[in-house]
Amino acid sequence: MTSKIKPAKGAAYARIMGVGGYRPTRVVPNEEILKHIDSSDEWIRSRSGIATRHWAGPDETVAAMSVEAAGKAIADAGITPEQIGAVVVSTVSHFKQTPAIATEIAHKVGAGKPAAFDISAGCAGFGYGLTLAKGMITDGSAEYVLVIGVERLSDLTDLEDRATAFLFGDGAGAVVVGPGKEPAIGPTVWGSEGDKAETIKQTFGWDVYRRTPVPGGDGPDARVALDEIRYPAITQEGQAVFRWAVFEMAKVAQQALDAAGVSPDDLDVFIPHQANMRIIDSMVKTLKLPESVTVARDVETTGNTSAASIPLAMERLLATGQAKSGDTALVIGFGAGLVYAATVVTLP
Fold it and tell me: What's said on domains (predicted)?
C-alpha cells in the first residue's frame, strides 16, 4: 500500500544560531557555605574546583532567568521572537507539574503561539533539548527553536549536607537553533542507565510533607498541622558518580566524536557539563585532547547548574573570546537518571 502522507520538507541541516545566558546577581563564596558545614575553602576547591556560585533572589525565578537568557539568544541569532516555532525548556527546579513553564516563557519573550514544553533530563537536559530541536528543524515542524536550560538548584540544596552543599548554583542558558547550509550539529549519542538511578536523587517526593501533631491530640485520628515547609534536596553518592562520569562518559564522548567523523585533533573547544573540575580534567586526559583545545571550566565561578551549565559555559567562552564563531566543539551532559547526551556542534 502506498502511503498518502506527504514527506517532511524541513531544512537539510540545523545549526546553533545564537546563545544567551543569565547568572543571578548574588555571588555566594565558599566562606558562606562553610557557615553550615564542617569543611574548608581548600577542601571544597580541591574536591570540586568551585570557588563561588550564583544564587537567585526572590525575583529571579525560573521563568524570569529564562526570559533574560532567551532574549539574548534571540538577539544574537538575528531573528525576531515571532519567528520562534517551538520552545523547549529543560529544568528540574520548576515546582509545578503543569502547566509547563515553557508556555509562560514563550509568552513573555513574545514568541506568539509556538509549541512549548518542558523536559526533565537533569544535567543532560540541554543535550536532549538540542537534539529535539535539530529534529524539528530537519522535519520542518519549526523553522527556529528556542532551547533553554534553567535551574534554581539553591532551592534544592541541603546546606547541612557536607557532600553536596557547595556544589549547586542557579542560572539560565539558551540557544536558538535554526536551518543551516551544512552539518553543524552532529549525531547525538545519548542514553540512560536506570540501574544507577539511586546514585543521584531527590531526597523525597513532592507529595511528602513534614507534619506534626496538634497539641492535645493523640491516636490515629489526631489532627495534624503543617510543620515548617521544606523542599526536598538533591543528594548523590559522590564516588560512584565520579567513577561513572570519568570512565563511562569519556567513552560516550569518544562515540560522539566518531559519529560526527571528528578526531580530538579536529576539535577547537570542549564543553562538558560543569559538575566538577576533577571530572573535567580527567575526561580531558582520558580523551587525550590536544593542549590547543579550549576547555570550559565555568564551574569555578558558577557551580553546577545542571541543565543550564553547558549553554552558560558556551556563552561565557564566546563572550570572553576564549572561543569564536565557527569553532568545532564537543558538548556532553550527564547526570541524574543516570542519563547522558553528547554531540559535536559548530559554535554560533
Answer: The last Arg residue of the ACP-binding site is essential for the weak association between ACP/AcpP and FabH.
Number of Cα atoms under 13 Å in the Cβ half of residue 90: 29
The model's pTM is 0.92
- First-to-last alpha carbon distance for the chain, in angstroms, is 44
CATH for 189-198+234-346?
3.40.47.10
Residue 254 cell numbers, joined: 569518544
Q: Which helix (H) or strand (E) holds 339?
A: strand 339-346
- Which residue of the set 30, 54, 94, 123 is catalytic? 123
The CA-atom distances, in angstroms, between 333 and each of 167, 186, 270, 310 are 16, 15, 12, 7
The question of whether 273 is a catalytic residue gets the answer yes
Strand partners, 196: none
Q: 275 and 299 in contact (C-beta within 8 Å)? A: yes
Residue-level pLDDT at 232: 82
For domain 13-180, give the fold: Peroxisomal Thiolase; Chain A, domain 1 (3.40.47)
For the chain, domain boundaries: 13-180, 189-198+234-346
CB of 39 closer than 8 Å to CB of 189: no
Q: In which residue ranges of the chain is pLDDT below 70?
A: 206-230
Answer yes or no: are the C-beta atoms of 147 and 102 closer than 8 Å.
Answer: no
189-198+234-346 shares the fold of 13-180: yes
Residue 98 CB partners (closer than 8 Å, separation 6+): none
Q: pLDDT at position 147, please?
A: 98
- Is 30 annotated in the active site? no
Report pLDDT for 154.
95
How high is the pLDDT of residue 223? 46
pLDDT of residue 231: 76
Residue 94 catalytic?
no
Kindly name the residue from 30, 54, 276, 304 that is annotated as catalytic: 304
Cα distances from 141 to residues 2, 148, 179, in angstroms, run 23, 18, 12
> How much is the pLDDT for 252?
96
User: Given this model, what pLDDT does residue 115 score?
Assistant: 98
At residue 215, the pLDDT reads 52
DSSP state, 163? T
Among residues 30, 54, 94, 273, which one is catalytic?
273
- Look at residue 222 in the predicted model and tell me its pLDDT: 46
Q: Are 244 and 337 in contact (CB under 8 A)?
A: no
